[in-house]
Amino acid sequence: MAVYETFILQDPSELAEGKEHEILIRDAETYEQKVVMAIVSSSPEKLPSADLLRIRWQRGQPLPNLWVIKIIKDLGSVMEQPKGNFITG
């Protein structure tokens, strides 16, 4: 099971749980950043076989609970994306 991280600016309750959307993530082990089409949830039971997602505030402080992420499609590295073509959380 992989562990990913993402950074947010808004309240985590505003994240679109259970819906597909583009999100910027980074691999917690390699720090490789990429944009993916994914579904996220604060409840691991809602996304069985999903990877772990550590959500951090803009300044790096982690939220107390781990979320899960199911990656639908890898859209490539950040450098391959048109500017402003993704959301972060």
* Overall mean confidence score, pLDDT: 86
Structural class: mainly beta
Shape: globular
Element-by-element helix/strand order: EEEEE
Distance between the termini: 21 Å
User: What's the number of structural domains?
Assistant: 1
Unreliably modeled segments = 85-89
- Computed Rg: 12 Å
Biggest sheet: strands side by side, in what order?
1-2-3-5-4
| Content of β-strand | 35-45%
Biggest pleated-sheet summary: 5 strands, mixed, barrel
How many E-type strands?
5
Helix amount, in percent? under 10%
- What's the number of helices? 0
Give a written overview of the molecule.
This protein has one domain (3-80). The chain has a 5-stranded mixed barrel. The chain contains no helices and 5 strands. A hairpin with a 5-residue loop joins β2 (21-27) and β3. Residues 85-89 have low confidence and may be disordered. By secondary structure, the chain is an all-beta fold.
